[in-house]
């Protein structure tokens, strides 16, 4: 073979190898994604197992502790007794969605739920609202369980807020709004599996909380309640 043809042949081989690599790289990458996705779909999320009834009681206890610390002489009874128009006391339940590649499917994790307890008081004047938040901040700051994550005025939302977190993924947050003189907040829980989730249930189902929202009472009426 003439010397002049050798570089041309070598160049063609290199080009062929380069094209093959360009084709194989996305194929291998896509195959890796498929395998990773399959493994993640087959692996349950790292959620604790907590019965919804027990979770509702726990959130009610945390809410009662925070509400009592505000020391406002009003009762939030979900049955409506003594509540004003616009007051709120609501236990909510929502779906949990997995992280990672599984999130692309946009399907909830079967048998998992995320619960929250929210409440609000209407017609709370500024002096009363800010004094209540100061009392709550002092209460949470003195607690060994809660860690303060926010305290002060939020200019964007025009509200004063106290927020805290505790081990296990629980959060409490209470705010007084300048716009509507509303003092509201609540407690949120991390995602959890219902240990009694029936196999015949569908993904569109949610575990039943098995309970209604607990009443929230002022400090003088809440002595002896557990917050564990």
SSE blueprint and pairings:
Elements: H1 5-42, H2 52-70, E1 88-94, E2 112-121, H3 126-142, E3 147-154, E4 159-166, E5 170-177, E6 183-188, E7 192-193
Antiparallel strand pairs: 1-2, 2-6, 2-7, 3-4, 4-5, 5-6
Helix pairs in contact: 2-3
General description of the model:
The protein is an alpha+beta fold and about 230 residues long. About 30% of the residues lie in helices and about 20% in strands. It has helices spanning about 5-40, 50-70, 125-140; strands at about 90-95, 110-120, 145-155, 160-165, 170-175, 185-190, 190-195. Strands 1, 2, 3, 4, 5, 6 and 7 form a 7-stranded antiparallel sheet that branches. Strand 5 (about 170-175) and strand 6 form a beta hairpin. The protein is globular.
Name the poorly predicted regions.
29-42, 222-228
Sheet having the most strands: 7 strands, antiparallel
How would you state the average pLDDT, rounded? 80
Name the shape in a single word.
Answer: globular
* Total strands: 7
Descriptive terms for the model:
228 residues, alpha+beta, 7 strands
Short description:
With 228 residues, the protein is α+β, with helices and mostly antiparallel strands.
